[in-house]
């Protein structure tokens, strides 16, 4: 999966509930390969969720939606 091109995509959990919108790709283990997404949960919200690449079930380029294979409550929140 190419996480660099997902900026602005909507993210939905396994139940179809909207988690938020992708703000940017996050890099961790390898310098040039993103392994997570920073997802902002609201328009004026400062809270973001860290969605690991392992939690992503599918990316639909046509509808610009990322489907997760986990519930929203299992995703870590950070500021």
Please give the structural blueprint:
Blueprint (H helix, E strand, L loop, with lengths): L9 E3 L5 E10 L6 E7 L7 E5 L3 E5 L4 E4 L7 E3 L1
Parallel strand pairs: 1-6
Antiparallel strand pairs: 1-2, 2-3, 3-4, 4-7, 5-6
Identify the notable features of this structure and list them briefly.
single chain, 79 residues, mainly beta, SH3 type barrels, seven-stranded mixed beta sheet, 7 strands
Describe this structure as you would to a colleague:
- The protein is mainly beta and 79 residues long.
- It has one domain (3-46, 53-78): Roll (SH3 type barrels), CATH 2.30.30.
- Helices cover 0% and strands 47% of the residues.
- The chain has strands spanning 10-12, 18-27, 34-40, 48-52, 56-60, 65-68, 76-78.
- The chain has a 7-stranded mixed sheet, with no helix packed on it.
- A hairpin with a 6-residue loop joins strand 2 (18-27) and strand 3.
- The model has no long low-confidence stretch (mean pLDDT 91).
Give a brief outline of the structure.
The protein has 79 residues and is mostly beta strands. It has no helices and seven strands.
According to DSSP, the number of beta strands is 7
CATH topology, what is it called? SH3 type barrels
Query: How far is the N terminus from the C terminus?
Result: 25 Å
Question: What is the helix tally?
Answer: 0
DSSP helix fraction:
under 10%
Briefly note the structural class of the backbone: mainly beta
Order of helices and strands: EEEEEEE
Q: What is the approximate shape?
A: globular
* Total discrete domains: 1
């Amino acid at each position: 999966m190419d996480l660099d091109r997902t900026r602005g995509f909507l993210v939905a959990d396994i139940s179809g509930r909207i988690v938020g919108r992708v703000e940017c790709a996050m890099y961790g283990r390898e310098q040039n390969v993103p392994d997570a997404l920073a997802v902002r949960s609201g328009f004026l919200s400062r809270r973001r969720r860290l969605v690991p690449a392992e939690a992503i079930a599918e990316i639909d380029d046509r509808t610009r939606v990322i489907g997760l294979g986990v519930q929203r409550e299992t995703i870590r929140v950070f500021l």
